[in-house]
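Sat 14:20. Reprocessing the chain from the morning session after the first attempt stalled halfway. Input below, unchanged.
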Amino acid sequence: MKKYTIFLVFIAAMLTVGCKQQVVTDDMDDKEKLEVLDRQIEKHPNDAALLAQRAQVLLNLGRSKEASYDINKAVQASPDNDKYLMLQADIYFSNGDVSNSYSALSAAEKIAPESMDVQLKMGELTFYNRDYDRSMKHLNSVTEKDPNNRTALFMKGFIYKEKGDTASAVTLLRKVCDIYPDYEPAFEELGVLYATHHDPMAAEYLTTALRIEPNNTNAMYALAMYYQETEETEKAEELYRRMIDINENSADAWHNLGYIELFHYRDYQRAIEYMTNAVNADQQHIAAWTNLGCAYELSDQPGEARRAFETALAIDADYQPALDGLKRLK
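Finished this time. Tokens:
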């Protein structure tokens, strides 16, 4: 009898270990989590919490169509759970279904109108749809409770920029940079804003953005354009070449290097080489086709120039620089 009791205790202990092995933990990668959740849901197919958890993992793995099935079941089982509805909105959005994403968030807002998470997501979605007035309303509700909310402040700054209120945009973006000195997007946007006015502060903010994220080709391009427009040509060239090192098919970088060769150094053969690389990388790059035509024109190759201008006009029949190029060849 004693041995039998010991044996039962041993079996219970083994079952306990087995159960512990079934628990999803933060140190697991998503594939491990999915394996555990698959086993749990096989035993409990209608458990809303497990379904929602697996939906998040599937979304992380880029399997949003499968995630939809799980989160829809979770929402059906617990229609008053705002967290499930928010996840459902994310999954709809990842599938390109903006309308249903907004409906899911609206349902979450009715359940939890004071939730900053819900308001922030509503602000993000309406921001994405360029419904800036509605987005600002949701974002304001976030910053009223959390004045230093990074995402809300950044988006509000971006909205001000899009609406032409540069002063307000700069004020908010500088606030984000001051509070969050490692938040690269704010430094990039602020640098771009200053660059449009050829303000030397552009170099400072864009350089900081690249210090935080050295491979950010958007910031790299903006800084290169600033240098190019302020006639710091060598600095611009260095940045364009860095972009090409990161992505050899960077059409904009090849085009701008070609532009410098064409109009700054007057090296037409090298300009042709770089412009050709640009159009090979992007067949729809109308400026590159047009400037390739200019390079051929200036190097006394009218036939090639005509073909390049005509290719540009096949992209946009009203593109004036290409029309002007053809007129010069007549």
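Residues 21-107 form a domain with the Serine Threonine Protein Phosphatase 5, Tetratricopeptide repeat fold (CATH 1.25.40.10).
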